[in-house]
Each structure stands twice: as structure tokens, then as C-alpha cells.
Amino acid sequence: MAAARLALTVLVLMLAAVTLTEGLRGVGAKKCCFRFNENEVARDKVVGYIRTSQRCSKPAVRLNTVAGRQLCTRPSAAWVKELIRHLDAKSVPGGTSNL
Q: Where is the Chemokine interleukin-8-like domain (predicted)?
């Protein structure tokens, strides 16, 4: 009886430890930016973007380019805000038209 109780206690503690460590990992992008691209990037060169995690010391937007590169940019830059609006509108059906 004591062995079963001990085994159950160990199992519960192990599950609690795993749950806690997984919860601390958080969600979102795991990479942070420390240097930023200040030059405006053409819309046709960008295919998507990812906002960095709130756990990063500096907020950033990572732009995914057609060439497969990722550029760190400042989310407060006017051209970055406009590019995000453009990319978000492209992802919504009927958001933009080529007509």
C-alpha cells in the first residue's frame, strides 16, 4: 500500500513539473531581434511577417522575404505598419483586388 502511494506521489510530482516547464516556454516566436533593418523593403519582396514574443527585450516584426530571409524591423516604423496592413489585407478573402 505504501509503495503504491509513493509511486502515485512521484507520478503527480513529475506531471506537475512537466506542466510547469511547458507553461513557462510560452507561445509565439522564439527568436528575438537585437539589430534592426531601417531601410524600407518593397511590398513585392515580402511574403509574410511574425511579431516577436513579448518576452523579448525589444519589440520587433520579422519580415519573411521572397528569398527566404528574415529581416528584423521596428513595429513603430510607419512603413512597417503600412506593410503589415497590406499583408493582412492580402490574407483576407476579398480584402484587395487586382482589378
A: 29-87
